[in-house]
């Protein structure tokens, strides 16, 4: 009986290591009323080849009235990206078309809508500071978060 219990425990331990949980390479982010993201901090495991963000606009307003999107830049680039985005206007989701400083982005969403963006983790560098924000006018000052690459 003791041998059988030991054998069963050993089998469970081996099975547990054979099916170790993969790195979490995706996250759901809510764009909430009150100009808030949840969560406001994202950790990307370096073991991921790609990372996926699913943005969920939990509000009720149209994208024209209070849209939300998710835009990732280096923290040092955010002010210039935002200024260029305002010039680009609503038809471009307040983002300059072809802006290489934008590392990833979703389209602008209205309430109840969802969008997904997947980007290669190779775009990120350990130790670099990244900020994600909503480019809708007057949202970015409050609606932002940080993203880090976990080595």
Automatic annotation (TrEMBL):
SUPFAM superfamilies: Cupredoxins (SSF49503)
Location in or out of the cell: Periplasm
Keywords for this protein: Copper, Disulfide bond, Electron transport, Metal-binding, Periplasm, Signal, Transport
Gene Ontology molecular function: copper ion binding
Major localisation: periplasm
GO cellular component: periplasmic space
Region forming the signal peptide: 1-20
Domain of life of the source: Bacteria
Span of domain Blue (type 1) copper: 24-149
Function, as annotated: Transfers electrons from cytochrome c551 to cytochrome oxidase.
Name used for this protein in its record: Azurin
Source organism of this protein record: Achromobacter mucicolens
Classification of source organism: Bacteria, Pseudomonadati, Pseudomonadota, Betaproteobacteria, Burkholderiales
């Amino acid at each position: 009986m003791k041998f059988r219990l030991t054998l069963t425990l050993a089998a469970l331990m081996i099975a547990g290591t054979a099916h170790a949980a993969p790195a979490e390479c995706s996250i759901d982010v809510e764009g909430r009323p009150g100009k808030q993201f949840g969560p406001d901090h994202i950790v990307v495991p370096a073991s991921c080849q790609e990372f996926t963000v699913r943005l969920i606009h939990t509000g009720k307003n149209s994208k024209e009235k209070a849209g939300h999107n998710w835009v990732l830049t280096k923290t040092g680039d955010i002010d210039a990206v935002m200024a260029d985005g305002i010039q680009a206007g609503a038809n471009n989701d307040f983002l300059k078309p072809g802006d290489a400083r934008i590392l990833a982005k979703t389209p602008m969403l209205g309430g109840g809508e969802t969008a997904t963006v997947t980007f290669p983790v190779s775009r990120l560098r350990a130790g670099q500071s990244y900020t994600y924000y909503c480019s809708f006018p007057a949202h970015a000052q409050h609606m932002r978060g940080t993203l880090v690459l976990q080595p």
